[in-house]
Design goal:
single chain; alpha+beta; Thrombin, subunit H; Pdz3 Domain; 4 domains; 6-stranded antiparallel barrel; 28 strands; globular
Length: 491
Amino acid sequence: MLQIDWKKARVRAGSFMLASAFAAVAGAAALVPTAPAMAQTRVLPDFTDLVQQVGPSVVNIRTLEKVSAGSENDPDADMQDFFRRFFGVPLPGAPGQTPRPNRSPRGGTEQPRGVGSGFILTPDGYIMTNAHVVDGADEVMVTLTDKREFKAKIIGADKRSDIAVVKINATGLPAVKIGDVSKLKVGEWVMAIGSPFGLDNTVTAGIVSAKQRDTGDYLPFIQTDVAINPGNSGGPLINMRGEVVGINSQIYSRSGGFMGISFAIPVDEAMRVADQLRTTGHVTRGRIGVQIDEVTQDVADSIGLGKPTGALVRGVESGSPADKAGIQPGDVITKFGEKAVARASDLPRMVGDTKPGARSTVTVFRRGAYKDLGITVAEIEPDKPVKTADEDQKPKAGSAAQALGLSLSDLSQDQKKELKLHGGVKVDGVADAAQRAGLRAGDVIVAVANTPVNNLKDINAALGKADKSKPLNVLFRRGDWTQYTLIRPAH
């Protein structure tokens, strides 16, 4: 007779069911990974291959300027030594040092002016960099990663976009690959290679913080948290595919060093400028002759526009394309051609990219209704190269004006009558801080430091009272426009 121990059977059955349940759970876990397990499969990027791939295409750019023998005892030389010794800039013999001036055969000296970066566009020696890197340089020297050094020729520089192209006599150079900026995403890893403080082939990395960042310039910038410092200017911003997507151009800083916010010019915009520079040596842009401002919600509500969009017209230049087209102050430009104007900063870029002489349509919102106006785009005033005043053409202003890089003279009565001005001081030449502020020969300064000036005596007095450690506000006339700028003292 078969006897069953039911107590043991129940234990075995329970163990079997428990084992089956654990197996089922384990199987399900194996089939469906948990979120933490998926996250653990992601690792930080390795940039070593990118450095080997792109590094040889990045160059160091060193600029020199010629100074007269009489100015060799520069009072700034001691201060430069002070910063070199106590603020981390390399001492003589270390990488990135600033060498002493070399005497030229003509009795003057070649003074080191600055360092920057660039990258090779073509195997036959075309190199892109920032315009401010080569601005005002008498000589540009390019050093490759293999330590070969070449004297470069400036093909063209465009201050509005801060793009320049230089050329060296070499062949078989490793050119960069140009990326597609439209595919660049916020949060994507990017890398920069350059020469911060003259330290060649320095690699830094970070992520894209924002795109289409408006800083008031002609181009929308790529914002990153990649460490960028003086000397990185003109170097490439590189994606994880080894393609150049931007040109490192600016930093936000209160100290002069990196503070976590850097800006790069999108490479597609830069290439459009570079192509024109290589072809003609300058950039041609369109203009319509309007002063614009942002449309705030208050403005939109007051005119019945609904949402704050477009560019508010603050002023129209007499005789300009906008004036001839019938655009009026108070209009809101909502479309240019087939493109919508979302923000005021969009309009200058759209117009600037339009070929002068081209016919287009402007849509304006006026008194509760939209209106289409035909307009013929004119050419914007090109940048004029201005040479630094030399010993044969010394500034006529006082030492304070000279220190700012200004060469000035009084206006004649005929000039005042022609310009319809009661006073002012004519700019004959600019250099250094004045040139960086955007002043040009031919401008007429009408006020400095919030003080109207009628002649050289007035401006010398105003400059003498101004705080030399703070930016100097300047109101000046250029053509039919009165404009405002800040001259920042060099530190």
